[in-house]
Backbone:
């Protein structure tokens, strides 16, 4: 079946450091890919998305590129802030399944001042 | 515009009981999805409702059920609770049933089964 694999956390960084969270997927076909973020005590928020190969999603300084060849969608940010501390989830969805998201296990990021 | 609301926010039940969780989507949203979040299994899709019809279902036992009302509000029910049902249950709504529509998540209901 379809699956998403993320690097395990926690990832601990200093403010202004570079962040990368790896995400790879296994799927039959070409899904749409998403990154969601969950702040403490809150639900998930969509961070960015890409719907086809080579698309780059970006938001709030975060970027991820849909790489069909490597079935990857790695999240990057050039300079993190303390407020970026959260759990990040990579997810995929197929057009046929509409709103049925398949999530990775999540990566906790802690940014220290 | 009000976000997705879920009630109650916290719930404690004992094994064998049943529980009903409620989700009110963003006004105008017709699709409601439910997810279970646990430390061991992560986020798993339960089911999705669109215009009062279940459109997708995840791999959960029949003890987990749901429904959607004509005003798009949704409820999920878990019967004969087990310890393993302890989890954060998240509801998400989206405007239409079309692909790639952003899903807006509520804060969740944290269920503890003793």
Residues:
């Amino acid at each position: 079946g379809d699956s998403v694999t993320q690097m395990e956390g926690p990832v601990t960084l200093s403010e202004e450091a570079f962040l990368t969270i790896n995400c790879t997927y296994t799927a039959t076909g070409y899904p749409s890919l998403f990154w969601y973020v969950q702040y403490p005590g809150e639900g998930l928020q969509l961070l960015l998305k890409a719907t086809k190969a080579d698309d780059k999603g970006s938001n709030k300084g975060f970027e991820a590129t849909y790489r069909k060849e490597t079935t990857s969608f790695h999240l990057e940010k050039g300079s993190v802030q303390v407020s970026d501390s959260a759990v990040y989830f990579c997810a995929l969805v197929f057009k046929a399944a509409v709103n049925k998201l398949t999530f990775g296990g999540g990566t906790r990021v802690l940014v220290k001042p | 515009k009000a976000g997705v609301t879920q009630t109650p926010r916290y719930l404690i039940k004992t094994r064998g009981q049943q529980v009903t969780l409620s989700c009110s989507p963003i006004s105008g949203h017709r699709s409601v999805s439910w997810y279970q979040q646990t430390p061991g299994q992560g986020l798993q899709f339960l089911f999705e409702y669109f215009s009062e019809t279940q459109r997708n279902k995840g791999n959960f036992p029949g003890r987990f059920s749901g429904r959607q009302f004509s005003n798009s509000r949704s409820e999920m029910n878990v019967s004969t609770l087990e310890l393993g049902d302890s989890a954060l249950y998240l509801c998400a709504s989206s405007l239409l049933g079309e692909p790639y529509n952003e899903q807006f998540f509520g804060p969740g209901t944290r269920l503890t089964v003793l």
Q: What stands out?
A: The two ends of chain A are 41 Å apart (CA to CA). The interface with chain B takes residues 32, 36, 41-46, 49, 51, 89, 91, 93, 95, 97-106 of chain A (CB under 8 Å).
